[in-house]
Each structure stands twice: as structure tokens, then as C-alpha cells.
Amino acid sequence: MNMMTEYWSSLASLLGVLAFCQSLLQLVFPPELRFLCLRFLNRLFHLFSSYCYFDITEIDGVCTNELYNAVQLYLSSFVSNNGNRLSLTRALNSTATTFGLSNNDCIFDTFGGATVLWEHVVIQRQSQALTWRPLPEEKRGFTLRIKKKDKSLILHSYLDYIMEKSDEIRRKNRDRLLYTNTRGGSLDSRGHPWESVLFKHPSTFDTLAMHPVKKQEIMDDLRDFADGQSFYHKTGRAWKRGYLLYGPPGTGKSSMIAAMANYLSYDIYDLELTEVHNNSELRNLLMKTSSKSIIVIEDIDCSVNLTNRKKKKKNKYNKGDYCDLETSRGAGDEDGGNSTITLSGLLNFTDGLWSCCGSERIFVFTTNHIEELDPALLRRGRMDMHIYMSYCSYPALQILLKNYLGYEETGLDSADLKQLAEVVDKAEMTPADISEILIKNRRHKHKAVSELLEAMKTRVERKLKRGSLRQETEEEKRALESPEGGSESDFEQSCKKEEEIEEKMK
Ligand SMILES: Nc1ncnc2c1ncn2[C@@H]1O[C@H](COP(=O)(O)OP(=O)(O)OP(=O)(O)O)[C@@H](O)[C@H]1O
User: Fold this and answer.
1) pLDDT at position 278
2) How many CB atoms lie within 10 A of CB 224?
3) Which residue range or ranges hold the AAA+ ATPase domain (predicted)?
4) CA-to-CA distance for 393 and 425, rounded, in angstroms?
5) What is the pLDDT of residue 314?
6) ipTM score of complex
């Protein structure tokens, strides 16, 4: 008991001494002097430290600091792999989740061999300043710690790099738009010649069925283009690229365009040439497109008479009102007058001076009949890459089987696969045809494969039959046409026979 009393009394006298010292300190060292001392110590510390620090606050005065937002987005791109405690956000109507550093958490980053430390600093705001807009209750910011020797690298390149990266992430996270030119060239309420809708096409290079080597080549080309600003600048070329997609209907030309847009996070401008009246309207449309976009003209062979030939083009595949365009607008204004679009107008659109307004644009033309296009339109520099979208090959079929039936996970009968590999090239089926069969039977994998195999075999048989019948007819025709051949009525008979074959094949 005595011990306890002694303990309490010595504690009380110690506290008394402390209180006395504190009031003495207050008297000798007023707060101003203490603050100065602290500042001095701080300066001394920084003088001998090899690090320097930068504060990037969320709000600079009353304006939002763009750099803060950029750093937040930039860090979100790799923080998910490194951080232990993360903040998660998702904007309204967005499908992307954004990771962020939690309050007062740190993360290291490296750039050009320099290691930097980012700290997310969150402190409560003491009082609301008198501003025209209410400030958040918390004061947020990032503190960047770098080595003094890296200062110039970080300030000159790293921050620009962060701004660029954040732009890219922002574009990726936002929804893409699909534009189409307004009917008859009229302007919308904002005086814009393009109308837009949200573009949510699910096609990606993963889902696209084509040979993986070819696919990779296209992806590399697109990536080189998107990252090639300095290259295009250095070589004095306009920052644009043209792709011509050609091949039979249903081989994935439109799917490829969607995959390109999703891959690069570009908007799409789907140009309906039939709604454009003349070259100057075409130029105006081009000027109103934004950079980082894909400008598409589908079925270019059917859209307008692009051969500049005097004779009117005969369209093999009638595609409705596309085909009579030249007729309906009064063909004959071939030399670039104001009443119709001409080949030279289109060439100017793709690589004339006007095509360089804005930058980072991709032109994609599609056609089912490359042979009907004017060589001027096809030359490299205008259409830099010609991509043949072929009938389904075995590597492409494997992608479809994987997408539609989950083929890789569960595996299919190897004998079936072997047979598919044998007939797929001969069958000449489009990915669209194959997709249809697979969709129909997607719940029954083995039925899907056997039906597909059946369809392919039938096609091969029909092709063989057609080939041999045609050969027979050719021989008969040749016999009839020879000097000792038969009469005209025999020839007519042979034609009739060919028609019969066609009928049978149908
Ligand atoms: N290469 C492919 N990979 C994956 N799916 C494909 C492919 N080709 C076609 N398809 C499927 O077939 C459908 C039609 O294809 P798409 O419209 O892309 O072909 P297209 O070549 O543009 O045809 P068209 O020349 O008639 O416009 C697509 O919705 C897609 O489901």
C-alpha cells in the first residue's frame, strides 16, 4: 500500500515538473520561434537528403488539377498488381472498374531506370475556404519522391508520359461511338454532319476467326501505327493508314473493323457514300471527323462508280440502292464537278492535303470484288495493307470451335477434328456459315461437330459433282463446236443441260 502511495506521489511531482518545463518552454520559445526552428531543421534535412519531393494536389486553388487526375489513372493501370489495399471505383454507365491507391498508401514505379515513390496523401480539410464552389471535405494529393539526380528526367519526360498514358486509359474506359453521316447531307441540331450511337460491338481479335499469324501481323501493324507518332513526324508522312479488306461475303470484314476499333479504342465513322452529294461535301465530312478514329467505307465497289470509266459499271452483286448511284445522280460528271463524287474526290479524301486535317486516322475500305476497283485506289500509300478475308481454314475453325463450344476446355473427339481438318479447306465455307451451325447446336457439342462435318462433306461432294458435270458439259460443247460437230439445236441442248446442272446444284 505504501509502495503505491509513493508511486503516485512521484508520478504527480514528475507531471508537475513537466508542466512547469512546458510553460517555461512556451515562455522562452514562443510558437513562432518553434515553427522557425522546425523549418530550419526540415531544410537542413532536405539539404543533406538525396531525395526531393513534389506535391500534386487534387485542387489547385479552385481549379481541378489535371495532373492529379492523370496520376490517379496512370497508377490505377498497374496498382492492381502491386498494391495490397486498393480503392475501387466505377463511373456511372461504365463497364470498367478503376483501381486506386488507398489513403496514405505508397507505391514504387520505375521510369527510364529511375525509381520513384508515389504516396497518396489524404488529410481532413480544416475549414471551408470562401469559394464559389464547395470544396471536398478531404484534401487529397499525391506526393512524388524522386532522387535529386533524376529530377530532370522525371520533370521532362515522366510527367508527359503519365499524361499520355492516362489519356489512353481514359479512352479505353470510355464507351466508343459509331458515327454515320446524316441522311442527304443535312446537318444535325449542332450543325454536325455526323450522327452517333454508342458502339458496343463484341468482336475482338480474340473472337475473330482467322489464321493466327495473319492476325498477329495485323495487330502489330495497328499497334505500330498507333504508337508511331514520332515515326510519322520524322518521316514527314501524314499520320494515317489505309486498309483494304476484301473477300467473299460472310468472311468477317465488318467483324474485323469492330475488332480493330476495340483493339485501339478508336471511334468508327461509317461513311455512307450514297448520302454524299459531291466532293466538297465529302471533304466537309472528313474535316468533321476526330482523330483516333477509323473511317469506313463498306462495299466500295457498290457504293459509287469509282473507275472513272466512261461506260457505266455493271454490278455483279446487286446491293439494293447502292448500285444505281451513278445513274440516279446523273452520271457523266467524271472530272470532279460539283454534282457527284468522283474517284479523284475519293482519292483526295484518303490521301490529299485534306486527309491530313487532324491525325491518327485509319481508313478502311471493304469490297467483295477487289478486281473491280481502280488500281489507283489500291496502290500502297493509299491502301497500305490489303487483307484477304478468306474462307474458313483449319486454324480459323479452331478459334470458332473454341469460342462457340469451349472446345479447348473440354476437348472434342480427335477423330472428328482430324476429319474436319481434312475437309475444311475443300469445303470453302465462310466463318459466317460455320458460326450459324455452331450457334444452333451450341448446347450439344458433339452434335454441333457432326452436323458441321456433314455440312462440309456435302459441300465438298457438291463441288466435286459440279466440277465433273461441268467438265462433261465442256467436253460436249467442244465436240459440238468442232467442224464435224452437231447442229445448232445440239448446241442449244448442251446449254440447256448446263442450266439443268445449275438447277440441280441449287
Ligand atoms: N472471321 C470471322 N470470325 C468470327 N466470326 C465471323 C467471322 N466472319 C464472319 N463471322 C460471323 O458472321 C457474321 C457476319 O460476318 P461479317 O458481317 O463480319 O462478314 P462480312 O465479310 O463483313 O460480310 P459482308 O461482306 O456480307 O458484309 C458475324 O456477325 C460473325 O458472327
Assistant:
1) 84
2) 11
3) 239-393
4) 6
5) 41
6) 0.97
Q: Is 244 helix (H, G, I), strand (E, B) or coil?
A: strand
Give which of 60, 296, 35 is closest to 180, Cα–Cα: 296
Q: Which three cell numbers stand for residue 208?
A: 475473330
What distance in angstroms lies between residue 432's CA and the mean position of ligand 1's atoms?
Answer: 5
| C-alpha cell at position 185 | 447531307
Q: Which has more pLDDT, 451 or 406?
A: 451
Q: How far is the CA of 299 from the centre of ligand 1 (A)?
A: 14
> Distance of CA 111 to CAs 23, 152, 159, 343, 429, Å?
51, 12, 10, 49, 50
Q: Give the distance from CA 27 to its chain's centroid.
A: 69
Superfamily of segment(s) 176-388 = P-loop containing nucleotide triphosphate hydrolases (3.40.50.300)
Which DSSP category does 249 fall into? Answer: T
Among 331, 170, 364, smallest CA distance to 253 is for 364
Residue 374 grid cell = 481502280
The Cα 368–Cα 247 span in angstroms is 5
Q: How far is the CA of 464 from the centre of ligand 1 (A)?
A: 26
- Does any ligand 1 atom lie closer than 6 A to the CB of residue 294? no
Cα of 256 from ligand 1 centre, angstroms: 8
Residue 244, judged by CB atoms within 10 A of its CB (0-12, 13-18, 19+), counts as buried
CA distance 262 to 450: 34
Give the Cα-Cα-Cα angle 459, 463, 468 (nearest 5 degrees): 150
Q: What's the number of CA atoms in the CB half-sphere (13 Å) around residue 22?
A: 6
Q: Given ligand 1 and candidates 254, 300, 430, 434, which is best to mutate, with the most ligand atoms within 8 Å of its CB?
A: 254
pTM for this structure?
0.67
Q: Which residue CA neighbors atom 10 of ligand 1 most closely? A: 432
